[in-house]
Input
Amino acid sequence: MKLKINFILKTGVEGEIPVLAIMNFGYKEFDALKQTFVYKPLRYYTGIKVNKSEWDLEQKLPKDKTKRAMLGQLEKQATDIFNYLITTETVTPERLKQELDVKIKKKDDRATVTRVRIVEFINDYVLNDSSIKKKTKDNYSTLRNRLIEFETKIGKQLYSNEIDEELYNSFIDTIRVRSNRINTVWSVYKDFRAVLKRIARKFKIVVFNPTTELHPTDKVRLVTEDKIYFDLEQIQRIIQYNPPTEELNNAKLILLTLLFTGCRRSDVHKIIPSNKYSKNELSFNYARYFSTKTDTEVVVPILKPLQDAIDANGGKVAYKMSESTFNELAKVIAEQCEFTNEITLSFTNSEGKKQFETKRVCDYVSSHVGRRSFITNLINFVPITVLSKITGHTNSISAPEFNVSDSSTIFKYNKISMIDNAARFMKELKRQVMENRDFFPFDLV
Output
């Protein structure tokens, strides 16, 4: 990532015109109107003004040597600040502007700050940050609510300078009591740690650092749990399922989209078969999009069962549905498809101890079952390098969940284009289906 700076004159101004620095470093944000990611440079007021006659159009700099030197100094300072920031955090236009204001314009709103109420910081600086995705903000909102409950319990507001190992562990213990899953505790731990780091960066103050200051036995770690997936015979029953309501029909279409593309639920409405590949006797429709979670470009072919379902729906893809509503309806679909046999899976409780849980298969169903099923059913038939690009993995498919060795170094050399990768996927899948009819009960290509 490299910072590029161009200077322009502000439009629509007469007389002395402000000089703007357009700072571009490849940062993109999702444009809801255009339904795509667009580049968002920082438009920064330099504090320098010139008359139009004093502006060198060819060099895009003032003719005045003093003002030109001032802009050169600003460019150097901005580059130094940017190069420092990218070594410690994800840089956004707002974050870069904040540091520029402090270093260049001396607008330091942090100089007198010695402590910060954590709940207020989340409200003012995290939930109002436009660069943070909605799902992440929801997680921070949950953290804020848990902190407010904890403040009520201890009878005082919680400030950054007061957090120590004892108080921190006391808060995490309240989360353990609320939840019986270690990964839920880990999620709160991760978000709380991130908020403390944000406070330290913004106000340049020392805060408790769980990563370095906690005893190893007190650190919460994410664990890989047993999860269900649908095999192809179960998926065939879902294909044949006839929903009695429009809402269930839409949930079925979402589920089929997940099962036959391996996309995340946050991307399911981007799976629109609006593109067509036709070359060397191979023809298929495909969707092209940027992953909401990782901003990774993905090209995914539309497999035959999904294309058939879309055609049966009048050529329309599924309409939007909240994750909670979909999860409830997916359980209903699984139950009506008679996935009601009981199975026992292990899980890790909030104290880090393994336990067993027995439920019906349908009661385990959630949105991630689609992505997991897609990968699990195909991972032994399609090269992992190809499957990873189809599913939008930036390195290799997750080793713990799918029993695949991590080959992230090798994956850096996987430069095949997204379209060619999709074509290789379809060719290989067609061959595998023909050669393994016992495993594939229906055509995929």
Observations:
- The first strand starts at residue 4 and ends at 9.
- The radius of gyration is 27 Å.
- Residues 398-407 have pLDDT under 50 and may be disordered.
